[in-house]
Amino acid sequence: MTDKLFINAAVVTVDPEHRVFFPGYVAVSGSRIEAAGPMEELPEELRAAVDHAAGTSACGASRGAGAIPAKSGGSAPGLPEIIDCSGKALLPGLVDAHGHSGHATLRYLGESAWNWDFMAAELYCMDTDDFFWYADSAVTAAERLKFGITTGVSMLGSLNRPDRPELLSAHFEGSSKTGIREFSGLGFSGNSPKLFRHFEPDGSFREYRFDRRDTVKNAERAIRENQGRYPRSFCMVSPSVMGRKAGLSDAESAAENLAMHRLAEKYGTIVHTHAYAGDVKFMSETTPEVLGPKLSLTHSTGISAEEIRIIAETGTWVFHGPSTHSIIWTPCPVFDLLRAGANVAIVTDGAAPDRGYDIWRDMKTFRSIHRISEKDFQLAPPGLILELCTIRPAKALGLGDELGSIEPGKLADLITVDLMQPHFAPLRKDQLVQAIVYAACGTDVRDVWVEGEPVMRDRKLLKCSEAQIISDVNESFERMASRAGEERMNLFMSNDSLYGLRGSSRIDKASAFEGLEFELKQPEDM
Questions:
Q1: Beta bridge partners of 317
Q2: Contact, 269 vs 237, CB < 8 A?
Q3: Are 293 and 322 in contact (CB under 8 A)?
Q4: How many CA atoms lie within 13 A of 322 on its CB side?
Q5: Residue 205 belongs to what H/E stretch?
Q6: C-beta of residue 20 within 8 angstroms of C-beta of residue 10
Q7: What stretches of 91-231 show up as alpha helix (H) in DSSP?
Q8: What local confidence, expressed as pLDDT, does residue 59 receive?
């Protein structure tokens, strides 16, 4: 039985037929979509519900032919809630399939430094407590939801924290309070510090070395303890890199790759990681079974024509962050991959040092950089871009039958976009997708439902206090900063040429990390 009825919307379904209903309706029963179509085809039993929600909204003049006057929220006992979406687009929730827990709190630190990972590794592994990972996850989820992202993926840190499964619990506790759907997990940290600290609530800490041979055990424990424990939280296997790893022999690298694959198979989940030039070829030659639709490789910069062929033939996913630093060193051949029939999705890779989770901005960056690189202004049409942020990443997460489009039977992950703004005008049905992809920004998202549950209405989060989330993340930053010390934090916050032609950070000096036990790739190796 229908319990929510969205009417008078500009419905962009992103379904296989690419249907647009303007004006249109979507009927929801419980957590799932029941029906969708043009307003003139609204079933009679649903029209009766609309008749009980009499009254004309302020935007009634912009509804278009076929619209039905109604008042949001109006209904009679036993009839569905009516949500009048006049002047709004209704889309499937966006899917951001790659980001990093911890990055929101480190945003802007070291923003002009090439060796940013050195700084992040030091702070994450030496100066954070469980509250840090909780608070960062909550603010990340809140930011994503406010930009219309209903499903997010976060690796636990820039350089993974495989040493304590409890950190994954803290992460899921933070994200779940917002109502978002979240994927995260543990795995091998390819280039990581060898030394960690764990802080107790009273401020005391113990310092210890972590044996990477315990990674599989910890990753499995993290899955067992967290799968199903928090609402809409899903465990994955998440090594920081798959392929040939710095500091390991080829045999050791292959063994770790295979161990991650087998763990994911055991628990029926995905492997989510980074990969760079040569890594796909290495996996194909040493452990070909790890390649496939349940493996997602973020960045994949500098890959060869042979690697493109392997990716396409195996169905392996490539997650492309058009705003990330990795493409500065070596671009990802996105359209060569797409022409070969490979699986590709757009991701934010948010949020540090200089980005965020506004995936609408990444849609436009994606369009611009690839049109420029290929000298083809007709490249990257808006419908393709929208699919790369909805149905395609949903498929990568194994949820293509549940998410990513507005179709009967799928989960009701829905967002509205406010179209009654100058930057969308003039607005026509035949160019609705263009208007949304080319003009919309994250702050145009007004309302969000996850599995039929409202989690944001009129840009206000409903399941949590935004003020408390912001207060928590500010407190977690101050705790981290006090442990790192004033001298280190001043170093990390430096930009010695803020108004110059190019930034300059003092942490670029190798001496800044002298004595720390890190094994990190130089940028030319990435």
A1: 296, 343
A2: yes
A3: no
A4: 26
A5: strand 205-209
A6: yes
A7: 116-126, 130-146, 166-176, 215-226
A8: 36
Confidence at 73, pLDDT banded by 50, 70, 90: low
Rounded CA gap, 328 and 333, in Å?
A: 13
| Phi, psi angle pair for 61, to nearest 5° | -65, -15
C-beta separation of 127 from 197 below 8 A:
yes
Rounded CA separation 185/226 (Å): 9
- State the pTM of this model: 0.94
CB 336 within 8 A of CB 300: no
- Tokens found for residue 228: 């199903």
Percent helix, strand, coil in the chain, to 5, is: 40, 20, 40
Please state whether beta strands 343-346 and 317-320 pair in parallel, antiparallel, or not at all (unpaired).
Answer: parallel
**pLDDT tens digits for 325-352?**
888 889 999 999 999 999 999 999 989 9
The model's pLDDT over 245-287, given as tens digits with 9 standing for 90+, comes to 988 999 999 999 999 999 999 999 999 999 999 999 999 999 9
Closest CA to 236 of 228, 227, 244, 249: 227
- What is the full DSSP assignment across 53-113? S-S--TTGGGS-TT-----TT---TTSPEEEE-TTEEEEEPEEE---EETTTTTTTTTTT-
Q: How far apart are CA 296 and CA 206, in angstroms?
A: 35
Q: Which of 406, 302, 459, 379 is nearest to 33 (CA)?
A: 406
Question: Per-residue DSSP letters for 230-265?
Answer: STTEEE-B--S--SS-TTS-HHHHHHHHHHHHHHHH
**How far from the centroid of its chain's Cα atoms is residue 91's Cα?**
17
The torsion angles phi and psi of 35, rounded to 5 degrees, stand at -165, 160
Instruction: Report which of 296, 245, 248 is spatially closest to residue 269, judged by C-alpha positions.
Output: 296
Torsion of CA 201, 205, 206, 207, to 10 degrees: 130
Q: How long is the chain?
A: 526
Token pair recorded at residue 188: 């091998």
Q: CA-to-CA distance for 72 and 55, rounded, in angstroms?
A: 9
Q: Where are the beta strands (DSSP E) in 445-494?
A: 445-450, 453-457, 460-461
Measure Cα distances from 134 to 137, 254, 473, 489 in Å: 5, 33, 9, 22
Here the tokens at position 298 are: 């973020």
* Cα 500 to Cα 497: distance, rounded to the nearest angstrom: 5
CA atoms within 13 A on the CB side of 135: 21
Beta-bridged to residue 83, according to DSSP, are 6
Q: Is 497 helix (H, G, I), strand (E, B) or coil?
A: coil
d(CA 176, CA 283): 35
Q: How far apart are CA 193 and CA 327, in angstroms?
A: 25
Q: How many Å from the N-terminal Cα to the C-terminal Cα in the chain?
A: 53
